[in-house]
Amino acid sequence: MEATGPGPIVFVAAGLIILGAIASRGLIDPPMEPRQSLRGLRDILMGFAVLLRTRSLRRLYLTAALLQNSHIFYYAFSSLHWQKMGLSKDQIGLLWAEGVIFEIILFAVVPRFGVLRRPVALLVVAGLAGAFRWCVLGTTSDFTVLVFVQILHALTFGAAHLGAMQLLSECSPQGLSARAQGLYAALPMGIGSGLAYMLVGPLYGSFGGAGFYAMAGLSAAGLLLAFGLRGRLDQAPQ
């Protein structure tokens, strides 16, 4: 087996999954109160229907879809684009690692500062950072510039995810918070991402790195939706 290249990745990923499954055996389920109203498939489907009828949550899902799926072009083609622009594999790897590191730092820092725990503000910041980040990536492949811009991954992804999770937890109808998070995973992050991946291939084929400008447009649209999100969520049924 090769020491480098794509081959070993499959085995490393499989090993980590197995280790995660083994580690999970030591977890203890928290005590759960019986929920008489949520028994049966019919009640489950009715719960999802309640969530989808809530206008504020539909707006939140759409906002999250725009902000998070603006990353799809980056996930799919940034490495190829940067390699064509002359960056080395080591430089590209460093850029990817940098984005993840600053994302982790944000997750560690947010609980310590109250001003960073405002979910709508996090979504607005994510939209602003995304519009700027993708415009820069569409404009230049200068390594020094990219090193600074990659710091924004903490905001474009991390802040958007934290903001959405907080709003779902705070504003979902009573007893449906977990189900609302499930829809978040299924709709914006699941179906939305799948559709985005289908579109970015032709986009890159036609426009190359300039496709990042379309992702900036998604972030800007998510930003506009986020601005009006607070008032609508205040009216969400409890």
TrEMBL record:
* Residues of the Major facilitator superfamily associated domain: 47-213
The protein's matches in InterPro entries, at most eight in alphabetical order, are given as: HcaT-like, MFS_assoc_dom, MFS_trans_sf
Keyword annotations for this protein, in alphabetical order, are:
Cell inner membrane, Cell membrane, Membrane, Transmembrane, Transmembrane helix, Transport
Does Lipoprotein appear among the keywords? no
GO molecular function terms noted in the UniProt entry = lactose binding; lactose:proton symporter activity
Topology in the membrane? Multi-pass membrane protein
Q: Cellular component per GO?
A: plasma membrane
TM spans, by residue? 6-28, 60-82, 94-113, 120-137, 143-162, 183-204, 210-229
Record's subcellular location: Cell inner membrane
Xref: NCBIfam families: mfs
For this entry, the protein name equals Major facilitator superfamily associated domain-containing protein
